[in-house]
Structure formats: C-alpha cells, structure tokens
Amino acid sequence: MYGPSNERSCVLGTDALAPLLISTVSNSIRHVTLTWSEHSSQGQGWPKIVYGTTPGHYTATAYPTSSADNQTYTVAGLKSGTTYYFAIVFVENGSGTTHLSNVQSAKVQ
Length: 109
Fold this sequence. Notes:
mainly beta; Immunoglobulin-like; five-stranded antiparallel beta sheet; elongated
C-alpha cells in the first residue's frame, strides 16, 4: 500500500521532478484512462500509478509502459459507480527516490 506515511518526502506542488497528472476520464464501463506529463528534467526511471477509493490512501498499483510518446494508461476492472483517486509516482532508477504527482479523481461508469 502506498499511503500518507510513505509520502513524507514529497509535498504536492513543491516537487520539481513530479509528473503532472493531466486528466482522469471514465470513458467506458469499469475503466479509467489517465493522461500525464513527465517533467523534462526527470532522469532514468519509471512511472507507476497508485489509486484507491480514499484520497491519500492508495491500495492498488499499476505499472504502465511509458515513453515520451505514450503517457496514457487505462486502469481496468474498477467498480462501477465508485469514485477512485489517482496519482502518478515517478521512481528513479538506482536510488528509488519517488516523486508524487497531483491527485485527480474519477467516478467509474
């Protein structure tokens, strides 16, 4: 679980290397598509998506394949009628340092 106790080194709005979560859209039943922008100064690493039904309490993780040309991911198998809260975490290779994006919510169709 990735929750508030693990976010101690990242304050939203002040982490210059944090990705920007642009949108969360429930465009089909039980799916939410996320779109984000990675910071141009990010080094080598990977994004992971954290989400859950309570803001700041993320109980699920997804590992998208990301490149400069593909910064979208669809999370499937969600519960219809439920609001989920999503964030992108950028994890640096080697150090494991994390950078947490802003949080957005979507109500699943």
